[in-house]
């Protein structure tokens, strides 16, 4: 019987962000605010002679994950990894960070690496920044709630509050994070659009996120049609960063979003990544 460890990490919908360039990777990342969600990634890690990754979603299987392969190599282990998620990948749900945190949490236990929670997070954050799959999702997803990151990296202050309301989200298709992070022009627009403060409550979070989305010029025409339908119904909503999708709250949110595609009903997460089991 091959030794196995299983762990889970929540995902994260970023509402607004600004890249912060540090002198090293640990102080490079983003400031901004987003909501940590109860849907994320479950990762099963088994001892193996060489690293392989299977990604399961919605009955489909794909292979390979550059951020996970990078991270496992950096901590010096080989493993057979299987990740599972229900939300669409590349759609702004922070699944790359969740996959990294879940996989590294499981690997740390399976291989008795003795990494602290911060050590696991630092390895995940490094992979995100180096692979251009994210900037602040790892820091946000270390805890739950609506998370406002006041500095880059995994040790900066994060202010959190925990709304009870569900978050409804839908995706009209992926927006490859690396394509945005790699564009100097787009990142300049994003920096100029940054709202410079933390949200006071959930409605304020939607207001700041929507203002950012409009000023960053990231809203595609089909996403705008969904946002305008939310506006007409008085539903607070904004664009999932970075994905061609919309997130919203309120009694009418699910019905309005359902007119445009599949709706995911999400709860605000109360905690970050955790180990589920180790099978000796
Ligand atoms: N569930 C997952 N399991 C394994 N790798 C993943 C997963 N989700 C994302 N990744 C890896 O991260 C890369 C970038 O994902 P990204 O566009 O950042 O997705 P998201 O917006 O959901 O974070 C993907 O191409 C894939 O290699
Ligand atoms: C918005 C983003 C830069 C990317 O988020 P995702 O596409 O979900 O990986 C995030 O990491 C952030 O810093 O807020």
UniProtKB/TrEMBL annotation:
Its EC number is 2.7.1.169. It catalyses: (R)-pantoate + ATP = (R)-4-phosphopantoate + ADP + H(+). The keyword Secreted does not apply. It is an enzyme of class 2 (transferase). Pathway: Cofactor biosynthesis; coenzyme A biosynthesis. GO terms for biological process: coenzyme A biosynthetic process. Residues 73-145 form the GHMP kinase N-terminal domain. The keyword Kinase applies. GO terms for molecular function: ATP binding; kinase activity. Keywords: ATP-binding, Coenzyme A biosynthesis, Kinase, Nucleotide-binding, Transferase. It holds the Pfam family GHMP_kinases_N. Belongs to the GHMP kinase family. PoK subfamily. Phosphorylates (R)-pantoate to form (R)-4-phosphopantoate in the CoA biosynthesis pathway. This is Pantoate kinase. It comes from Methanoculleus receptaculi.
């Amino acid at each position: 019987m091959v030794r196995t460890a299983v762990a889970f990490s929540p995902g994260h919908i970023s509402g607004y962000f600004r890249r912060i360039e540090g002198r090293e990777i640990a102080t490079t990342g983003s400031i901004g605010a987003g909501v940590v969600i109860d849907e994320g990634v479950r990762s099963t890690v088994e001892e193996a002679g060489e690293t392989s990754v299977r990604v399961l979603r919605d009955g489909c299987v794909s292979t390979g994950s550059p951020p996970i392969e990078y991270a496992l190599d950096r901590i010096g282990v080989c493993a057979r990894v299987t990740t599972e998620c229900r939300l669409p990948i590349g759609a702004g749900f922070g699944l790359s960070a969740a996959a990294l945190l879940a996989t590294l949490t499981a690997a740390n236990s399976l291989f008795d690496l003795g990494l602290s929670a911060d050590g696991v997070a630092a390895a995940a954050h490094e992979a995100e920044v180096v692979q251009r799959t994210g900037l602040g999702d790892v820091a946000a997803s270390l805890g739950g709630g609506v998370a406002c990151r006041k500095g880059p990296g995994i040790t900066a202050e994060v202010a959190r509050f925990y709304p009870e309301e569900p978050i409804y989200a839908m995706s009209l298709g992926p927006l490859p994070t690396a394509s945005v992070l790699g564009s100097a022009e787009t990142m300049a627009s994003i920096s100029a659009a940054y709202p410079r403060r933390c949200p006071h409550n959930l409605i304020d979070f939607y207001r700041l996120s929507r203002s950012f989305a409009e000023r960053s010029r990231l809203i595609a025409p089909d996403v705008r049609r969904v946002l305008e339908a939310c506006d007409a119904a008085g539903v607070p909503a904004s664009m999932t960063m970075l994905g061609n999708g919309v997130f919203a709250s309120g009694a009418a949110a699910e019905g309005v979003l359902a007119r445009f595609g599949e709706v995911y009903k999400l709860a605000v997460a109360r905690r970050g990544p955790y180990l589920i089991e180790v099978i000796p």
